[in-house]
């Protein structure tokens, strides 16, 4: 098995005549937490959309656990062990916390309408949904409609939905966007807890979250990964400071 969960090999992506991703290369080792940072419009979300199969690459390749995902649909990539969250919350507001998690588990199990499969699937889904609810700290909100949760609770539920299927590779898109300082501190703890032993790739603008969570930081500028290194080295990287931060160290920035 490959040592890397995710590998980008000279990935390019154009929309019409505009090339947005311009030869991005990155290797994310199994079990590590990587943050992708970069200025607005650099192509971070586009990279996530390519890795999760929403868009196809124009050229180059993306490997998941050593196997090319070129041409695969998002649900096939999901069932190959990669799960992503979205910038906009992706929850069903009228369903309860428990029901949202159960749906996510059933979806990831590849739920089929055969009778025996359904019975087993339902039992597994119930247990898994309960376990995830405990992990994300929403047990006391079990029967509350998701639409009535606080914003931070909704984001925690979103993370729960993302991990519910047991994927080994988790992509989180701005998991702390819109949160207060204390809410995002809690979110960092939550993300750390639920990604133990997993590979995490997250796009995040909040540098205290990035520096608090990431083993490595990949800096994307104009569709290229211009640096990928430890937080300490990224902070001291002159190229990064110049290209991305206008001369300021990343620790001081809040894009
Ligand atoms: N489906 C699309 N069609 C055309 N252009 C697109 C599409 N998706 C993204 N783009 C363009 O690609 C560029 C990169 O966008 P992207 O959202 O990936 O950047 P980002 O680094 O995630 O930015 P932000 O930090 O603001 O979220 C932008 O110029 C955007 O307009």
TrEMBL record:
Molecular-function GO terms, alphabetical: ATP binding
Cited SUPFAM superfamilies: P-loop containing nucleoside triphosphate hydrolases (SSF52540)
Database matches in SMART domains: AAA
Highest taxon in the source lineage: Bacteria
Chain ranges of the ABC transporter domain: 6-247
InterPro entries in alphabetical order: AAA+_ATPase, ABC_AA/LPS_Transport, ABC_transporter-like_ATP-bd, BCA_ABC_TP_C, P-loop_NTPase
Record key words, sorted: ATP-binding, Cell membrane, Membrane, Nucleotide-binding, Transport
Coiled coil: none
CDD domains: ABC_Mj1267_LivG_branched
Record's protein name: Amino acid/amide ABC transporter ATP-binding protein 1, HAAT family
Organism in which the protein naturally occurs: Noviherbaspirillum suwonense
Lineage: Bacteria, Pseudomonadati, Pseudomonadota, Betaproteobacteria, Burkholderiales
């Amino acid at each position: 098995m490959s040592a890397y969960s995710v590998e980008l090999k000279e990935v390019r992506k154009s929309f019409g005549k505009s090339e947005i991703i311009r030869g991005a290369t990155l290797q994310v080792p199994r079990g590590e937490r990587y943050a992708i940072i970069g200025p607005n419009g650099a192509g971070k979300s586009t990279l996530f959309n390519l890795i999760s199969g929403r868009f196809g690459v124009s050229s180059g390749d993306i490997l998941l656990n050593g196997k090319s995902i070129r041409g695969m649909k998002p649900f096939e990539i999901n069932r190959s062990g990669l799960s992503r969250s979205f910038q906009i919350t992706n929850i069903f507001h009228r369903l309860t916390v428990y029901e949202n998690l159960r749906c996510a588990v059933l979806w990831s199990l590849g739920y089929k309408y055969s009778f025996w499969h359904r019975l087993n699937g339902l039992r597994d889904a119930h247990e898994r949904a309960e376990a995830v609810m405990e992990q994300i700290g929403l047990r006391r909100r079990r029967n509350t409609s998701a639409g009535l949760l606080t914003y931070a609770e909704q984001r925690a539920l979103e993370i729960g939905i993302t991990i519910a299927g047991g994927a080994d590779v988790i992509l989180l898109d701005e998991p702390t966007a819109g949160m207060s300082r204390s809410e995002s501190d809690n979110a960092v703890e939550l993300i750390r807890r639920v990604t133990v032993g997993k590979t995490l790739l997250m796009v995040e603008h909040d540098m205290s979250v990035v520096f608090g969570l990431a083993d490595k930081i990949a800096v994307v500028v104009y569709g290229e990964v211009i640096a990928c290194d430890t937080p300490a080295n990224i902070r001291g990287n002159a190229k990064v400071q110049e290209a991305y931060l206008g001369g300021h160290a990343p620790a001081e920035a809040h894009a």
